[in-house]
Amino acid sequence: MKTFLNILTCVLIAQGFCQDIIPDNIDVQASSSIADYALINDFKGLDFDKKNAKVSFDFIEENTSGTIEGLDFRIDFNPNDTDNAIFKGTAEVKTLDTDNFLRDGHLMWEKFFYKKKYPKIAFESTQVVGFGKNTFKVIGNLNIKGTQKEVIITFTLDDSKLLGKTTIYTSDFGVNIHDEREKNKLDIQFHFPILK
Fold first, then answer.
1. Is 40 left (phi over 0), alpha (psi -120 to 50) or beta?
2. Residue 132's pLDDT band (boundaries 50, 70, 90)?
3. Across residues 119-142, what is the average pLDDT?
4. 3-state secondary structure the chain
5. Is the model's pTM score more than 0.85?
């Protein structure tokens, strides 16, 4: 309780209140520093529109584009406080859509994404780093078909959205569309609208 009262006092001092009742034995400068520290860690992140968020991809070798849905994610992100940022979420394998019913069905087989055993693709960040104005690198672990690999997603931020992109090779995750690794290149894009 004493600690809470001290912090409350510091916040009031920092906001310019109670100047007339500060005891002589309180170091105002030290108290203000504590208040600043408390306020910095009580940040308000951006709010994202989950309903209209999208993940799309381009399979380079086949010149094929597609989407994946069933997104369930949590993004705690304030561009001024990347140390406390969190990016994590899942997508449902069964929603893979390349605009070809037969191909999409084949992708569910054990040889490829094995939907029955591994119904979700998951990502969780381990670090977020700012690179210049409105560019951020989100480093984390991507889990596909029971295989986990570290990936780096580059995000750019503007007033209305957070856009991300990364490149993986599906064969690194046991999804061997082609025998040669280079032919399994997949460019992935993330689109997260910001709620106003």
1. alpha
2. confident
3. 96
4. CHHHHHHHHHHHHHCCCCHHHCCCCCCHHHHHHHHHHHHHHCCCCCCECHHHCEEEEEECCCCEEEEECCCEEEEECCCCCHHHCEEEEEEEHHHCECCCHHHHHHHCCCCCCCCCCCCEEEEEEEEEEECCCCEEEEEEEEEECCEEEEEEEEEEECCCEEEEEEEEEHHHHCCCCCCCHHHHEEEEEEEEEECC
5. no
